[in-house]
Amino acid sequence: MAVARNMRRTSPITIVLASLMAFGFLCFLFSSPSPPVSTSSTTSDSRLEDTAEHPLSPPTKPFIPQPVQNDGRHVQAPPVVKYDLNALTASSDASNKAERILILTPLARFYQGYWDNVEKLSYPHKLISLGFIIPHTKDGDAALSSLEKAIARTQTGTEQNRFASITILRQDFDPPLASQSEKERHKLKNQKARRESMSRARNSLMFTTLGPSTSWVLWLDSDIVETPNTLIQDLTSHNRPVIVPNCMQRYYNTDTKQNDIRPYDFNSWIDSSTAQALGDTLKPDEILLEGYAELPTYRTLMAYQADTKNPRPKRVIDLDGVGGTALMVKADVHRDGAMFPAFPFYHLVETEGFAKMAKRLGYSVHGLPDYFV
Amino acid sequence: MNRHAALANGYTAYPRSGQGTFSISPHKFQPRSQPALRRRRQLIQRICLIGGVSFFLLILIFPSWRASILPALSLGLLSSSDHLQIQTVRYYDLAKVKGSASGWEDGDRVLMCTPLRDAASHLPMFFSHLRNLTYPHHLIDLAFLVSDSKDQTNEMLENMLEELQRDPDRDMPFGEISVIKKDFGQQVKQDVESRHGFAAQAGRRKLMAQARNWLLSATLRPTHGWVYWRDADVLTAPSTILEDLMRHDKDVIVPNVWRPLPDWLGGEQPYDLNSWQESETALALADTLDEDAVIVEGYAEYATWRPHLAYLRDPYGDPDMEMELDGVGGVSILAKARVFRAGVHFPAFSFEKHAETEGFGKMARRMGFSVVGLPHYTIWHLYEPSVDDLKHMEEMEKERRAREAEEKAEAERAQRTETYFKDPKVESEIDNAFVRDSVEEEEKAKDATPEKSDSTPEKADSKTGKGKYMLDDKHDKKPQPKDDKVKGDADVDTKTEK
Q: Which of A15, A194, B240, B417 has the greatest number of CB atoms lying within 10 Å of its CB?
């Protein structure tokens, strides 16, 4: 009991220490809420005006959460929201007209380089919405957690750096391949199944996130780690329905003992008569693939059209097939129904099939051979 | 197991070896030592006070913290601070919204899409159907696409939707409601004749497909389990239609669509001929056509010999019977959202020689989804008379009016004679009345005889009938039949000249 009596006579130091501890505890409680559930912080009025009318409303806009009752109903009946799509434009002067960009990425693995690169884009971030689709695999879980960390950092950071909205989807079907290693991924016999599943992932992502306010859709693969900061402005300035830059890979050239670049995306091509003849011989369920010795197509590949010595980034060529590593599409093209066929469409699937479908819908498809990403 | 029972049996719940330490039965009373909390009450109070004050000061100093701290403390009760937080991240697991067979129990959200054009006259009927739907309304998201409308469709739609959402009945308001306006510059007129003319079909259907795709891509959300396409001009449909179709748990399912007809056309007729099974003939036909051609069903130009869902209807058949389909009609389609997510849409180009909903059915089959129709489960489409029908109906209406007028006149005369006979006071007038009647009759006979000479006896009859009774009613109209007479005379003249 004597000890307790001593303790009762508290010195000011104890009190200060205790209050410090209480403060630290409070800080710990409130400073780091779990990232995907609530990434909230104060924002300026310009952003407030831009929010969706209702949490259910377009996924390309930020929203203000509303109380939901136990039975899943909203306390207030959702409003009637009108959208005038006649006024929606997709023009060469995208940033001045405040046209919204949706960047879509099927994410199998998270690369910090990808995120840093997206963060560096100079297009106003409040007009950029991001969409991700992640498979239900172990790799996917890992990618998700690192993505959430990156998002939490960006969306609570400086205001002009924050993106308008971010949608994360988990795939509702299993990918056909367990391994995502490059070698396994690019094997010819695995290609069809892999690319059909990729198409479904892309379609799921596109149809659910497009919404009524998007003007442009930029497809960016998760392994694109280096683009010019002005990528969006540059691609929109051409004002083409579908446009694709040339995708290159940096590597260490063992022959010349220095860092060099080499072509990476072989899916952007101009059709050849050989390929068409080859296509006619195939059964309806077979597909034609590019870059495999088994199927000599003799198509003109954009990857090899690049002039690395003195590039003219404004040079535009017409294409028949496109790759999906970096692909800028007017939202209207998708709205008209151009999607990524998950079945052989004129013996083409995924992005190449998409180019074919866009052409069938009367849109032109272009490439920028000297614009590297 | 009851512990006391265990003790009664001679067994103990705990080992007895360590009598003192492990025994839980209190052998002697020991006052519990005073809890530390009570002892250091004053200290704790002071700490709380100081903590509170410092917290308050900190909030004053760093206003940016308020947004994150206040709602957490108030447990979301302070709705005034809501506008301070904007959420930007949405997370959805598509595997959880696959669309189940009993969606109304599992809380599946349904997106109901309706394309509209110049449909103001159908809206009241459509909204009465909406209100009657038995599927939980808050789980239904409505999406409308209003395109190229010249009538009041847009204003009417918005007013009716606002009214619907303000309904005091908690079960009435729907979920997210989007009204999308987009003009495609359609040249095709919307009356029945031009809409269903063979030549206009391919172009029209491609534009319709485009409209459907715009609507879908703008309103489909990751939360939707099912998508229901419904036209505004459905006359009657069961209010449980969503549950009925959902119950089958198919990827794409359509009911049979018929339309009622006036009795003189046979009472009823299959309406939707776009739901069919593929036939050999049609496949062979498709091979002969060029890439952009679109086969449209129900026209003599393309004889496909396909088995149609519509013709297989038996009014007393089992409504749950299913039938595999290749092409579907768009009046009422229920599909799982994952079908659309996988990329199936309404081709606005010629997909395997088909466009719009038929192409949709084909594409869904192509991607391995099940496409099913219910031949004996029928909804009724509104009957819109064609131009020929309208003409016929006009004639019938004329005849009817003439008949009615005749009956009326007959009744009047009967009544008049009756009153005259019954009324004893005016008995003297009866004779006068008879005289007047006979004079009128004579006049009528005079008017009628020259017209009888008209070349078409049937029409002339109806005309004269009308003229006759007009004369009876109003004498001002007298010149009109005279004009007719002159015309008739002129006709006769020209004929004689020939």
A: A194
- The answer to whether the CB atoms of A203 and B182 lie below 8 A apart is no
Asked if residues A322 and A350 have their Cβ atoms less than 8 Å apart, the reply is no
| Smallest Cα distance from B365 to chain A, Å | 11
How far is residue B160's CA from residue B157's CA, in Å, rounded to a whole number? 5
What is the number of CB-based contacts under 8 A between chain A and chain B? Answer: 252
CA of B80: which chain A residue's CA is closest? A66
CB contact under 8 A, B51 and A81: no
**Residue A341 touches partner B, C-beta closer than 8 Å:** yes
What domains lie within chain A, and their CATH numbers? 57-64+94-237 (3.90.550.10), 240-320+335-373 (3.90.550.10)
pLDDT in tens, A221-270: 888 888 888 888 888 888 888 888 888 777 776 666 666 777 777 777 78
Residue boundaries of the structural domains of chain B: 36-86, 98-384, 386-443, 456-498
Residues of A in contact with B72 (CB under 8 A): 29-30, 33
Continuous H helices in B144-275? 153-165, 192-196, 198-219, 241-246
Contact yes or no for B145/B116 (Cβ under 8 A): yes
**Which of B108, B161, B219 has its CA nearest to residue A79?**
B161
Q: Give the C-alpha separation, B56 to B58, whole Å.
A: 5
pLDDT, tens digit, 9 for 90 and up, residues A317-353: 888 888 888 888 888 888 888 888 888 888 788 888 8
- The predicted complex's ipTM stands at 0.79
CATH number of B98-384: 3.90.550.10
